Amino acid sequence: MRPLRWQPIATLLLSIAGLGVATYLTITHFDKVALVCSDNGAINCAKVTSSPQSVILGIPVAMLGLAFFIPMIALCLPAAWRSADRRIHLARLILSITGVGMIVYLIIAELFIIKAICLWCSGVHVITFILFVIIVTASPIVLDPGYGLETDADEYDHA
Prior knowledge:
The chain is mainly α and 159 residues long. It has one domain (6-142): VKOR domain (de novo design (two linked rop proteins)). It has 6 helices and 4 strands. The strands form 2 sheets. A two-stranded antiparallel sheet has the order 1-2. The chain has a two-stranded antiparallel sheet with strand order 3-4. Strand 3 (55-56) and strand 4 form a beta hairpin. Helix 1 (6-30) packs antiparallel against helix 3, helix 1 runs antiparallel to helix 6 and helix 5 (86-114) runs antiparallel to helix 6 (119-142). The longest helix is centred in the middle third of the chain and has 29 residues, at 86-114. The radius of gyration is 18 Å and the shape is elongated. Residues 151-155 have low confidence and may be disordered.
């Protein structure tokens, strides 16, 4: 049994989109003028991206996004999805769980500590959550000990 045909493609595209937004947020962390977003009321990207919570252990959160999406792209390549090496699939799952844990922290920080929401950050949160859902639903298949050993002509189920 294989993951659904769309799952590797969707996760790769989502990872690339996430890398794009994380790159933009990294640029705006160092160049506040580049930030394009509302700066008043509940939606205030500048307040969020310049808050004390925008840095963890001296590392900008946006750069942590880069550190998440770069390996996620490699782990979501179609060849990685086809691999019989369970470590690749386990790494993808662990990374996606870590990403969701991080966005839970960041959403709590935005809502209850910073009291403002960044739409760009919310985009990363949505991308990370969708990645997590797709990866978690495919994990029972790709983590099966017999995965990748079958000799089917089809690479993926057609469903």
